[in-house]
Amino acid sequence: MAAAVSGHCVLPTNKLSLSSSSSSFSGNVLVRLPQLSLFSPPSRAIGGKISCQSSSVTSSPKPQWNDFLHIDDFDKATIMKMLDRAAEVKALLKSGERVYLPFKGKTMAMIFAKPSMRTRVSFETGFFLLGGHAIYLGPDDIQMGKREETRDVARVLSRYNDVIMARVFAHQDILDLAKYSSVPVINGLTDYNHPCQIMADALTMIEHVGQLEGTKVVYVGDGNNIVHSWLLLASVVPFHFVCACPKGFEPDQKTVEKARRAGISKIEITNDPKEAVRGADVVYSDVWASMGQKEEAAHRRQVFQGFQVDEQLMKLAGPRAYFMHCLPAERGVEVTDAVIEAPNSIVFAQAENRMHAQNAIMLHALGL
Q1: What does the alpha-carbon distance between residue 111 and residue 130 come to, in Å, rounded to a whole number?
Q2: Quick one: which of 11, 182, 314, 324 could link to 59 by a disulfide (CB 3.0–4.6 Å)?
Q3: Can you give the pTM of this predicted structure?
Q4: Is residue 41 helix, strand or coil?
């Protein structure tokens, strides 16, 4: 018995005939294809004939720049180009135009080990508005690393999709996905960093403050993955970044040192939020206990006393300071209701810009 054929077929358009169907298929359109024998597959196409090429077990290597894993994987010019592209595509979508469809015929697999409203809706909606189709894979759909190894998930999804976005716990998972995937991988969040969020934040600052370079951004709270992403951005784009956090909750020291060694931005880590916010262009906050840390919530509320962003702290920052938060927020905990609802709060513009920044990231990743 002949061996099975694994591969793909290239069908030249001049050999396809479109015609109205016979009476049994009235009103439909049939695509008439030449007969293909699976027992003796033809060789490479010559003169318009069908070409069947067997696929190899390993996929061809992808350019490393296709992945979007860390902000500092890119230089300043590339980051700013993506932000400019985000603003352009945002303006196009806001105008009501629906003719720009660069993702038409493309699919994206979205892996969610951690659930998220903003990440899912912003990626799925953005990809759809630009012509693509996104597939949601929740925590129980894959159980990556448990039911199936990450490297196998990467290889399988690569053969179905044009891009993979993953929101996971361990940072090693996103690195492994990128290593074994033959299509671009976008970091939707890990416990270490959240680059898509910071791109949205940068876009929001450009829109409201007027610029990113030369500004003062003060983060008040836990030295978490958001802080790491701000530090990585500060190693590429020049601005003054301050993280005010309780002792013992500072950001990863290696990431702090990396940002300082870059010599691009002024980096400060302090335990005094009142002094830190003076002269800030942006005061930024996040939940004190992230997903996976909820059992520490009560303890953290005690330790983080004095680090709540309230009206008094915003007054110290000055009248020009905007408030930002990556959401979801625990109102009355890390930020007061009055601050979130104040005129200088831009948290919802920030949330909207997740979609626009990510559209630009996906366009860059796909080389479009």
Answers
A1: 20
A2: 182
A3: 0.83
A4: coil
